[in-house]
Amino acid sequence: IDDGAKAEFNVASEEDVNVLRDDASWVEGYREAVRLAAAAWGWDVLSARRISPLKPGMGYNFKDVRLAKICRSLYLFEEAELLESMQAFAREVQQVEKRGDTFHYRGVLLDELLYFKLPRRLERMVSDMDTLEHKISMMSPSGSATTWGRVNSC
Fold it and tell me: Which of 41, 42, 92, 113 could make a disulfide contact with 71, Cβ separation 3.0–4.6 Å?
């Protein structure tokens, strides 16, 4: 992530994020690492639910900083589905295991992990809007997204 204790492993810029996101092999390994960490805590990220029954050694270990770092990295790399799943897990952990307590590490409040929202970058939002506009234009009888928008606004 961008503020970890070991600077050599930190993501320092949007360029770093883009380089890693463009590496399909890295992205595959990253997603698998998130899946495995979540599974160790008893969470299936793909179905966004608890694993039951738990195998010996599985379950949340109250290492809040680890959960916060996973959520922050999912936010930085804009992994919307995984972030949503891990935030659902965090909300359950906060209610069940932590009995309403906050997430914290060495006196630092980590509850921000519950509030990350995507997309985080304006250019990503514009790109997503362009993609949506294109899809709408493909569905429109006239082939024009503008016409489609006018029809729906009536």
Answer: 113
- Token output for 96: 């069940």
Amino acid at 73: S
Contact (CB, 8 A) for 31 and 79: yes
Tell me how far apart the alpha carbons of residues 48 and 70 are, in angstroms, rounded to a whole number: 15
Separation of first and last alpha carbons in the chain? 46
**CA 36 and chain centroid, separation:** 15
Higher pLDDT, 145 or 11: 11
d(CA 101, CA 93): 9
Per-residue pLDDT reduced to its tens digit, 26-66: 999 999 999 999 999 999 999 999 999 999 999 999 999 99
Q: Find, among 109, 7, 19, the residue nearest to 64 by Cα.
A: 109
Please report the pLDDT score of residue 93 as a whole number: 96
pTM: 0.74
